[in-house]
Amino acid sequence: MDLLQHLITIFAENGYIAVFIALMICGAGLPLPEDITLVAGGVIAGLGYANVHAMFALAMFGVLLGDAGIFLLGHHYGARILQWRFVARVLTPSRYAMVQEKFARYGNRMLFFARFLPGMRTTIYLTAGTTHRVSFLRFLLIDTLAALISVPFWVYLGYFGADNHEWLVMWIQRGQSSLWALVGVLSLTLLVLWWRHRRRARCEQD
């Protein structure tokens, strides 16, 4: 976890602006893990260098801004963006074709789950923009709903584990599977609530 410690040092010395810049780097698809960045932001809040709720708000803004920028680049430039040298390294023609096929099959669900797929997020958001299959407002809504699960998870994990390094490292390693479990529980809860609402509506009609 040398990267985590390095980010904690940088964020503690430079505050919110450093966290925001790091999240922009994550959003651009550069090799800086978003989850570790968010955890580091939470850690400096736990150590007293920032307010954790302000950190959460900043992280949400930074994450959504970065995602929106990637989507809009794809939306504005279309498939021409594949010719950019930087983009070509992230989004190869074969990967672009694969994501297009998956996006055509799963649509909005793929956008939602992309937030929980490190390494694929940038590719999926770029492809979503280039295909014009979804409006920017719909993309932003779906991305916000997903970010409201992942962002507080990582930020507050860092906050509560700031003084317990071993515990924090353990939960970072378990983090992705824990996030999937959380998504599953929330999905099941929403499904049950929808089913109960539908059943109640049918009873009232009868």
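Second entry:
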Amino acid sequence: MAALAQPGPDPRVLAAAGGDRAAAQAICREILPRVRNLVRYLLRGDARVDDVAQEALIAVMRGLGSFRGDGRFESWVDRIVARTAFASLKRQRAETQPTEDEAIDLDARTEAYAERRELALALDRLPEDQREALVLHFAMGMTVPEIADAVSAPFETVRSRLRLGKANLREALGGRDAPGT
């Protein structure tokens, strides 16, 4: 890349800026390793290096007409590559940040999980027969006669287990009704 390192208007840069495809391809081949290395260092990983390097090369080729030759061509290329890489990082951060609606949804799901967890722990503290009756009725949607048949218990016994289970669950939840009861 000795020809590109010299300050002043390089004939290949001028030719590429003027539309000479062969000159543009020669410049791309020369600067590609430097561009890829700089992108790799800036992005911390190889997942998007090729995409961002390609973006940077396109930006360099489009900007060739603005290169005045006051400094080293490589320094000018490095500035364009760095701006392109930083713009990519900024876009990635914006894409991974939850929107306000997603954040609200995440808060709601977290709160719902905490409530379900608290309910599960309260259910675990109930006597087996009461827990079984509550789960079959409220979670599985079974009627009292269906539960009585499933657990081989009299109808009134199942009603009693449900009533006592709800009262004990409410007490375990600090006086609040369990969701769905």
